[in-house]
Amino acid sequence: MVHQCELVGLPARPTLVARTRTALQRLPAVLGPAWGSVLAHAGKTGDASFVAEHNVDMSDLDTTCASLCRRARVGYWRC
C-alpha cells in the first residue's frame, strides 16, 4: 500500500497542553488525569485533541496531551 503525504500550511492555533513523564505501565493512570485536566480547561469545543510521545524510553515516556482551542488562554494549571 502506498500513501501520499503532503505538507500543508495552516494558520497557527492556540493549543492547551499538559506534558508529563511516566513509565509505559503507568500511562493509563497518568494519561486519564492529564487528559481530564486539558479537557476541563479547554471546554467541550469539539476541536481536535491529541496525545504525543516525545521519546521512546518506555521506562520514562515524555508525554503530551493537547487540545486545539478556539481562543488563547494564558496560565499554568496543576494536573
Keywords:
27% strand; 79 residues; alpha+beta; 3 strands; 3-stranded antiparallel β-sheet
Describe the structure.
- It is a single chain.
- This protein is an alpha+beta fold and 79 residues long.
- 20% of the residues lie in helices and 27% in strands.
- The protein has a domain of 54 residues.
- It has one helix and three strands.
- Strands 1-3-2 form a three-stranded antiparallel β-sheet, with helices on one face.
- The longest helix is centred in the middle third of the chain and has 16 residues.
Compact description:
With 79 residues, this protein is an alpha+beta fold.
Class per helix and strand makeup: alpha+beta
Order of helices and strands: EHEE
* Main sheet: strands, sense, barrel: 3 strands, antiparallel
Residue stretches low in confidence (pLDDT < 50, at least 5 long) are none
How is the largest sheet built, in terms of strand order? 1-3-2
Which percent range fits the helix content?
10-25%
Q: Which strand-content bin applies to the residues? A: 25-35%
Number of contiguous helices: 1
* Overall spatial form: flat
How far is the N terminus from the C terminus? 41 Å
